[in-house]
Amino acid sequence: MDDKIQKTSVAIETQGFTIVTNGKSREKLIGKSVLHLYPYLKQLESIDGVLANLNVELTPVKSRQSHLINFIDTPGLVDGELHYPFEIEKAIIHLGNISDLIFVFFDPIGQALCKRTLNLVEKLNNLYNERMRFFLTKADEAGDEPDRQKIMMQIVQELCKRKGLNRSGFDMMAIYLPNITGLKQREQMCSNQIDDVCQEINKAIVLHLQKTFNTMERDINQLDELADNKLKTFNTDLNSNLIKFLNLFATSSGYFLKS
């Protein structure tokens, strides 16, 4: 996205769901307008309070594939007495069910490893393991390379303590926003894997298109078979009714001739 849409400070600042997508002009949609644009989100309406905290940010994007992508930003989770105006875990799990990829961002200066976050990540991983991707965000603010590796190891160790997240080949990418001042100096200090994230998204787009075309082909074949069966049934019924009519007509004619 070429526009600044979401805040980039600590994760706890967002308390609602924001869908970021391509549009002809900069615009914001809220409430039921979102459901008109995305009918597949209608089930969220059954979760009290979600609709009032759901909005869409439309922004013009030059990228050729941008119209194929919807980014959904979810609220940051914290432990303690913070009250959310809806069942946040239930809503996030529902969104995970309809998503092609689930990105989990761990902020080195935020509350990345709070119990509430890890519990939810474990549930999502148990349900949608193949969609999960893990990232260390603001990697350029995590100190030098040894400090950064130490932070990543701490996060991975905390994740792997949980049975639902303990897996071989655990991968975590280090990313940060490239459009910031002093970028060249930051890149020298910390490599940015954000291009790998873009590749993951591109792969997901291609896979989703393949699945869509496969589903479309299957549906077309089913409709063709259904139409063919209907036509055969119609022709059979038509012939049967015609024979009955002719027999009736012949019988009636014979009766009149006899009379």
UniProtKB/TrEMBL annotation:
The name this protein goes by in its record: Uncharacterized protein
Annotated SUPFAM superfamilies: P-loop containing nucleoside triphosphate hydrolases
